[in-house]
Amino acid sequence: MSSGRRETVMIFCANPLSRLYLAPLAHYRPDIVHAFIGNGDDAVSSVARGVFSSTKGEIGSCDVIEHDIDTSDYNTVLGEIIKITTGLQREYGEDLDIFINITSGTPEFAAAGMFASMLPLSVTAFKMDVDCTM
Length: 134
Description:
The structure is a single chain. By secondary structure, this protein is an alpha/beta fold. Helices cover 40% and strands 23% of the residues. It has helices at 19-28, 43-55, 74-92, 107-118; strands at residues 7-13, 32-38, 63-69, 96-101, 123-126. Strand 4 (96-101), helix 4 (107-118) and strand 5 (123-126) form a beta-alpha-beta unit. Helix 3 (74-92) packs across helix 4. The termini are far apart.
């Protein structure tokens, strides 16, 4: 019998602007976090890895699972998101909320997250407003 407790999961992509993923994490307070860390050798990926590494302590007491992945490869990102969501749904069934933060990711990550939210999986993609004057 179910306890009525829902597991909350958030999937996001590391970004040099940590508030793009830290603010939603503070709001949703997920039990499990899947962080996509770009493995490219470009400057943005390198800075994003450093920022994520230095802000991991601010994520909270949830389980953090890191995915070292080419976040500029749509098919790779989509495949990983689907693998994560289907595995979680097998494990938790209906007692599960999955959120994908498409604000902080690459355009390919955002497109894959939106597509995944349209599949018959229990996934909600969201984008937060960003104030560029901060």
